[in-house]
Each structure stands twice: as C-alpha cells, then as structure tokens.
C-alpha cells in the first residue's frame, strides 16, 4: 500500500475503488489493516478544525468497509468506537476553545482523587498536541477520574544543578 494512505482512502469515491482497497488491505492481513489504523490515528493527531468532518467520514467509511476488525486482531474489537470517541473529544475541544485562545503553553492532567496513584501530567505542549492527548485519553477516563486540558498563563521553572 502507498504512504499517503488516508489521502488515498478519502478519495475512494466508487464502490469498485472501495472494494479494490478492501481486497488489498484484506490480502495484506494484519499489516495492511494496521497501516490503515496508523494512518487514521495520525490524521486524528494532525487534524485541525476544518479536517474533523472529513475525518469523521473517513472513519465511517473504514467502519463500513471493515465492520469486523477482530478478523485482523482481537485487540481491535472496539477500534471504531475508540477512534470515533477520540475524534468527538477533539471536536469538542475545538468547539470550546477559540482559535485566538490557542497560543501558548498547554498541559493535560489526569488524576483519580479517590485512589492512591500518581497524577499524570503532560506539560509544555503546543495546543495542537495537548488537544490530541486530551482527545485520546478522554474516552478512557473512569467514573472517579478526571482529565484537564489547561493553558499555562505563568510559569516559574528552575532546574537542579
């Protein structure tokens, strides 16, 4: 398969082209399907506001062409729901945070205040990266956990030496 897989995939406009793509991926088995998933994941990471609708359509098309991803690996039983949830969370972030407010340093924090465990923090991120991490982890948050996407306004940092 080609490197620009998602681009090629979105340009499949006929039933014949879709069927040929499906046959190509199916013939390659796990590796072919993995490349499709990796391409979709990378597209989610890179997606800007204007890319979300096409991304939703691409996932819907992939789900229609490959309704049983467990045929490639049991670990992909819920992959379509996971990708859809990640895109929905990223879409929500983009809807809530205006483009004019996206500059600066961002961080993503996850915690469960009712459990003795480490707080997870991804500091020093550009908005684009923070939005993806938030979108990736948001669907996985358990009932008593929380996730925060926040912009850093003031920072004092010192390094040991």
**Global outline:** elongated
Mean pLDDT across residues: 92
Strand content: 5-15%
Q: Enumerate the strands of the largest sheet in spatial order, edge to edge or round the barrel.
A: 2-1-3
Count of separate DSSP helical elements:
6
Which regions are unreliable across 5 or more consecutive residues at pLDDT < 50? none
Radius of gyration: 19 Å
H/E order of the elements? HHHHHEEHE
The total tally of domains equals 2
- Head-to-tail CA distance between termini: 50 Å
Number of strands: 3
Helix content: 40-55%
Largest sheet: 3 strands, antiparallel
**Helix and strand composition category:** alpha+beta
Coiled coil: 30-65
Keywords: Coiled coil
Give a verbal description of the structure:
The protein folds into 2 domains: 5-96; 99-152, no CATH class. The protein has 6 helices and 3 strands. It has helices spanning 5-10, 15-28, 30-46, 52-65, 79-96, 127-137; strands at residues 105-111, 120-125, 146-152. The longest helix is centred in the middle third of the chain and has 18 residues, at 79-96. Residues 30-65 form a coiled coil.
